């Protein structure tokens, strides 16, 4: 199929994974990335001699797509797992353990929930009413806050579910889709009157020894895009950066892309195109020829955030923290009410022993700031954001020394919001795209934000393109 040319718009993990599959199937592939670098939200750089990711730092090891891709790249032996995944929640002014038996914050073990002291006595007393309340009507999609709150009370939403979801989506439980952000729980809840019983069923059905939860690469997950790009090049593909696609138009025998500045545009013809960019630019590209998809994509909102990485001397901690980090519920960190601003803290050097082994005297810490609707927090200077992160660690860990080095990474519009109705919106996008031969979409805006989900999205897009190219050339699957 070397006579066929496919263009992938977007050099993030989804675009690169789709391009690699196409290139390995003999398609001539060109990846066009508008920014100066590939990788999207995957990026790593050194701080105080330690390679610490600036974006996503790990991938789920219990979904196969990410591990399979690393294996296909010949790097499965390089994968490393966390030394600890135990983490806490800052609730009612103190760090407390995340209760065992929960699924994304939805509890199944009332004794463990009580022992954690995450909820107030009144909030804890409200939870078991779920066992006797009548069924909560649910037709179509509802928000996480509406359904979980109706079953278990508002404190479970505010102090358990929302902080865990916030670590993934940086969203708000009153807006996020129950069906799309908690799919396993939502599905189980359809066959159980009690939400507690539904989650107990999920826990009982889970493997007894599922293995490590997360995995990464020794020099950071930000190295994965470069491994993919090298593999694409080896298969004869091309990866270009600084190549912004301004227009995508359907032609009689394929597609034409307009690349670069208006004063000196470049036109590139393709037999098939995978659009693997965020929802807003995807909407602009699809609007001329697939307006129904463009309209739905234009309704997907995004949250912005910043990750402040601090490298301390190990002696800066009066006592080394326990666990991999902690989450801060919105009700604790709401700055409008005198809160902290930091929503999550990861003790990277403790979570990943290979980082500690590399620089035993350094403790690298990542602090996350910013949720949907909190763009005003990110208007502060790097120095102010760093000071906020330092104040957080002083309050919870007793750190009084200045960090040896710091870094602020801003992800403007980085996280798509899976709000109520998201699945229907995505279905409409895919239905519209299905009517455009040789076109596919992929990325975090559709079926999941994690690395494995993005890779699955990429594979589906690449297979759609391959089917089209093979049918055009009269080649069987």
From TrEMBL:
<dbReference type="InterPro" id="IPR036188">
    <property type="entry name" value="FAD/NAD-bd_sf"/>
</dbReference>
<keyword id="KW-0560">Oxidoreductase</keyword>
<dbReference type="InterPro" id="IPR002937">
    <property type="entry name" value="Amino_oxidase"/>
</dbReference>
<dbReference type="GO" id="GO:0005737">
    <property type="term" value="C:cytoplasm"/>
</dbReference>
<protein>
    <recommendedName>
        <fullName>Coproporphyrinogen III oxidase</fullName>
        <ecNumber>1.3.3.15</ecNumber>
    </recommendedName>
</protein>
<dbReference type="InterPro" id="IPR050464">
    <property type="entry name" value="Zeta_carotene_desat/Oxidored"/>
</dbReference>
<keyword id="KW-0350">Heme biosynthesis</keyword>
<comment type="pathway">
    <text>Porphyrin-containing compound metabolism; protoheme biosynthesis.</text>
</comment>
<feature type="domain" description="Amine oxidase">
    <location>
        <begin position="13"/>
        <end position="466"/>
    </location>
</feature>
<keyword id="KW-0963">Cytoplasm</keyword>
<comment type="function">
    <text>Involved in coproporphyrin-dependent heme b biosynthesis. Catalyzes the oxidation of coproporphyrinogen III to coproporphyrin III.</text>
</comment>
<dbReference type="Pfam" id="PF01593">
    <property type="entry name" value="Amino_oxidase"/>
</dbReference>
<dbReference type="GO" id="GO:0004729">
    <property type="term" value="F:oxygen-dependent protoporphyrinogen oxidase activity"/>
</dbReference>
<keyword id="KW-0285">Flavoprotein</keyword>
<dbReference type="GO" id="GO:0006783">
    <property type="term" value="P:heme biosynthetic process"/>
</dbReference>
<comment type="similarity">
    <text>Belongs to the protoporphyrinogen/coproporphyrinogen oxidase family. Coproporphyrinogen III oxidase subfamily.</text>
</comment>
<keyword id="KW-0274">FAD</keyword>
<dbReference type="InterPro" id="IPR004572">
    <property type="entry name" value="Protoporphyrinogen_oxidase"/>
</dbReference>
């Amino acid at each position: 199929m070397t006579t066929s040319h496919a263009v992938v718009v977007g050099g993030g993990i989804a675009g690169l994974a789709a391009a690699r599959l196409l290139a390995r199937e003999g398609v001539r592939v060109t990846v066009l990335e508008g920014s100066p670098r590939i990788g999207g939200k995957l990026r790593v750089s050194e701080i105080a001699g330690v390679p610490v990711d600036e974006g996503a730092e790990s991938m789920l090891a219990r979904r196969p797509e990410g591990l399979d891709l690393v294996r296909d790249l010949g790097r499965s032996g390089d994968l490393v797992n966390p030394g600890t995944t135990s983490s806490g929640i800052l609730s009612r002014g103190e760090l407390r353990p995340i209760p065992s038996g929960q699924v994304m914050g939805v509890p199944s073990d009332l004794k463990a929930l009580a022992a954690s002291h995450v909820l107030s006595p009144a909030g804890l007393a409200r939870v078991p009413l779920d066992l006797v309340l009548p069924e909560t009507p649910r037709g179509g999609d509802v928000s996480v806050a509406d359904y979980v709150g109706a079953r278990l009370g508002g404190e479970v939403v505010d102090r358990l579910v929302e902080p865990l979801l916030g670590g993934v989506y940086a969203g708000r439980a009153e807006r996020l889709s129950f069906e799309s952000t908690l799919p396993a729980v939502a599905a189980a809840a359809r066959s159980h009157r009690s939400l507690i019983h539904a989650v107990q069923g999920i826990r009982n059905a889970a493997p007894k020894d599922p293995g490590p939860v997360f995995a990464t690469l020794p020099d950071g997950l930000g190295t994965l895009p470069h491994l993919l790009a090298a593999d694409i090049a080896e298969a004869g593909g091309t990866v270009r950066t600084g190549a912004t696609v301004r227009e995508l138009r359907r032609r009689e025998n394929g597609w034409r892309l307009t690349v670069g500045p208006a004063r000196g545009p470049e036109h590139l013809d393709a037999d098939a195109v995978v659009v693997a960019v965020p929802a807003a630019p995807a909407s602009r590209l699809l609007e001329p020829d697939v307006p129904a998809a463009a309209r739905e994509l234009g309704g997907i909102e995004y949250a912005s955030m910043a990750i402040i990485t601090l490298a301390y001397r190990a002696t800066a901690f009066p006592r080394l923290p326990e666990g991999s980090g902690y989450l801060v519920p919105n009700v604790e960190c709401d700055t409008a009410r005198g809160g902290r601003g930091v929503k999550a803290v990861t003790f990277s050097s403790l979570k990943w022993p290979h980082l500690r082994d590399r620089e035993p005297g350094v403790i690298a810490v990542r602090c996350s700031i910013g949720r949907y609707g909190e763009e005003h927090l990110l208007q502060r200077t790097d120095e102010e954001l760093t000071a906020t992160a330092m104040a957080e660690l002083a309050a919870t860990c007793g750190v009084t020394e200045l960090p040896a080095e710091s870094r602020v990474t801003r992800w403007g519009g980085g996280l798509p919001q899976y709000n109520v109705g998201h699945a229907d919106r995505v279905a409409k996008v895919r239905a519209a795209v299905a009517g455009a031969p040789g076109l596919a979409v992929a990325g975090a805006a559709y079926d999941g934000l994690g690395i494995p989900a993005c890779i699955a999205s990429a594979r589906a897009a690449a297979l759609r393109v391959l089917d089209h190219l093979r049918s055009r050339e009269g080649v069987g699957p």
